[in-house]
Here is the input.
Amino acid sequence: MLGAEDSKPTISMRYVASLAGVSHQTVSRVLNNHPSIRLSTREKVLRVIDEVGYRPNNAARALATKKSHRIGVLVDSPSSYGPSAVLRGIEEAARETGYSVSAVTVDESRSTSPHEAVEHLMAQGVDALCIIAPRASSVDLLREHLEGFPTLVVKAETEPSFLTASIDQHLGATLAVEHLLALGHRDVLHLAGPLDWFDARGRERGWFDAMVASGFPMRPIVAGDWTSDFGYDFAMRLESLPDFTAVFAANDQMALGLIHGLTERGYRVPDDVSIIGFDDLADARHFLPPLSTVRQNFQALGRRSVEMLLAELAGEESPHRALIKPELVIRQSTAAPRR
Here is the structure.
């Protein structure tokens, strides 16, 4: 039943689930004595656990059985707009359901590692974890430490180890690029974010797919660092009016710096170059010119994330992945291309 010993499978919760013919969430609920599990299913899972010698993370299991009505949130790069806005959305949604939030931040210096931050949260007896870790490297560090504990990661891609929820970054980028193409632009530069970030990857892929679908040639992306300074410096390095007629900037801050730099160089936005951003910062409508962008509904994201975690805690069936639709916001920074 359990296969040849020489294959040496990894004895994980997912391995137990595959042998028992159930989901890994069901195995987790059996381990945590959840009342919603049928007796026959419980006995089958426990029999497989005994046969393969599976040993769950006892600390996580013990914590999962307590009900502190508290969600732990790890926030990587908290000074960046996206992670901080997601945290606010989760805090608001948690309060509405009677839960509190304990948050630990991990900054660029990594004086506290993601693993240490999670250990700190677990020590507080949280019922579930939400990981706002926009960088792939952070999530990679956490997989082996959180198996079996109710965990949601804020990212658009599917993640076999965790629940996931996100704004649909690919769709947002597609909306931005299709807007520029509809205006008549045929050469759209992408000023990307750091590609270790999940959101930057999703936006780059949306730009790429929209340009491929259009049939127009693509120029190499320019990978930035999310800051206004980067957008400004890029504009100041241009030797002349560029061949491209539009820029899809991966966030509003780089778009702001780009507008500033182009203006100092004597170029006009949108007459010479159209610019569209992403995020819809509170001040985006006050840029000169007011910025066309993609709005992210972080309140809806926070609400959906909390709903998914509470459903997991209650043993209810719910989607493993959720995507929130973004909204295209058209203002005065985009127009038909120069002739």
Residues 10 and 118 are 23 Å apart (CA to CA). Residues 5-56 form a domain with the 434 Repressor (Amino-terminal Domain) fold (CATH 1.10.260.40).
